Amino acid sequence: MIEVTNLTKKYGDHLAVDHLSFRVEKGQIYGFLGPNGAGKSTTMNIITGYLAATEGTVFINGADIQKEPEKAKKSIGYLPELPPVYMDMTVEEYLKFAAELKKVPKAERKKQVDDVMEMTQITDKKTRLIKNLSKGYRQRVGLAQAILGYPEVLILDEPTVGLDPKQIIEMRELIKELGKNHTIILSSHILSEVNAVCDHIMIISHGKLVASDSPEGLKKLMSTSMELKLSVGGEFDAIRDALLAIEEVEEVTEEEKDADGYTRVSVRAKEHADIREAVFYAMAENRLPIVSMEHTEKSLEDIFLELTEDVSQSEEPETEETQEEQEVSE
To answer: From CA 317, how far away is CA 277, in angstroms rounded?
Structure first.
């Protein structure tokens, strides 16, 4: 579907994308994550043909985005972070205009425009000027534009930025619905959204791919040692001795007593060991009642921070966009 090979983008001495390679398979929703300045928007703009790469290739359905741009772009629908809408047009006028630009056959334009308005739930706004719509509806208009022509791939750059919680939920459901018929690449800073919507997650840092897996696969990859939080009736010394007698237990740490006076302890297992059953029997044998046991897992936020923690604090959020604007103006 999409094959990115050795993709590199330089702005003077700054390396925004550093020999990036990945494949996007058909029929999945991909989350594209990275801190500000990591190269996300630059990569997405190169994939869509908006920017030229310094080195490397991007093939979309077998077509090179630089050598066969028209053929490659027919397979892509793109929603930038700021929707490319004309404020003084009505919704319907704008979508008809966009359909003409995308060379949708004249006989099919009206049906396609009606269909994408229905799909994005903006049919009742079709006679409204876009400048009079809320940000949420402008995002929907931008998404409707991306769907026109029924491209196989939708690339969505921060589609929920600036939306209120209700609009975010509605947009999330819409993206999941679109994922049934399209391959989607979704860039977002809302990690819970990516976790809820995406089948596969790619994380980049300093322009390099540092992780690529399903949300569950990433959690397994980054959580090699099981950690348990216990509330136990008894003194810490007795609890620690009983737990350390278990061969697979690596470390036992005392925490504050809980509100009911039970001793709270943190237990870390050796790599790849599941110690829950052994802990239960050890506590029972030593007459140390467990009143709660919690298996703590790393969240996507924890994984993201761990993989990107070396990103320089001096990088400004607008650096990447500013460089892109300079490139276009040149």
So the answer is: 47
